[in-house]
């Protein structure tokens, strides 16, 4: 019975670590840019878009597709960085146990 209590305590500790991790990820920001810095996307540690900056020089009404591509590239890279941050932080919090949280990536 002692092992069961220890397992339950470990589960509670893990749950607390994961809750703290979620709070930290909400407040962390990760940025990426495209087009030599002409488009910059910033996301939180969970991958949610926080900001998007577009330099006026890249706005060409005759080439909207290029701007769309740059925005997509910047957002995708920022979200990839956030995913890596999430995975690294989750590994630390869980001691390497493969745990996925619903709604994240």
Question: How is this fold's topology laid out?
Answer:
Layout: H1 2-27, E1 29-34, E2 39-44, E3 49-54, H2 64-94
Antiparallel strand pairs: 1-2, 2-3
Helix pairs in contact: 1-2
**What is the overall silhouette?**
rod-shaped
- Widest sheet, order of strands: 1-2-3
The major pleated sheet works out as: 3 strands, antiparallel
State the low-pLDDT regions, or none. Answer: none
Please name the fourth-level CATH homologous superfamily: Nucleoid-associated protein YbaB-like domain
Key terms:
single chain; 105 residues; alpha+beta; Ybab, Chain: A; three-stranded antiparallel beta sheet; 2 helices; 3 strands; 54% helix; rod-shaped
What's the short story on this structure?
This protein has 105 residues and is α+β, with helices and mostly antiparallel strands.
Question: What features would you describe in this structure?
Answer:
With 105 residues, this protein is α+β, with helices and mostly antiparallel strands. It has a single domain, classed as Nucleoid-associated protein YbaB-like domain (Ybab, Chain: A), CATH 3.30.1310. The chain has 2 helices and 3 strands, in the order αβββα. The protein has a 3-stranded antiparallel β-sheet with strand order 1-2-3. Strand 1 (29-34) and strand 2 form a beta hairpin. Helix 1 packs antiparallel against helix 2 (64-94). The two termini are 37 Å apart.
């Amino acid at each position: 019975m002692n092992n069961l209590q220890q397992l339950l305590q470990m589960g509670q500790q893990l749950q607390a670590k994961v809750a703290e991790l979620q709070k930290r990820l909400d407040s962390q920001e990760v940025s990426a840019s495209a087009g030599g810095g002409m488009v910059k996307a910033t996301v939180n540690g969970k991958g949610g878009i926080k900001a998007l900056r577009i330099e006026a020089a890249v706005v060409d009404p005759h080439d909207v597709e290029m701007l769309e591509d740059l925005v997509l590239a910047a957002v995708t890279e920022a979200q990839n960085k956030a995913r890596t941050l999430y995975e690294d932080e989750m590994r630390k919090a869980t001691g390497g146990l493969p745990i996925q949280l619903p709604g994240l990536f």
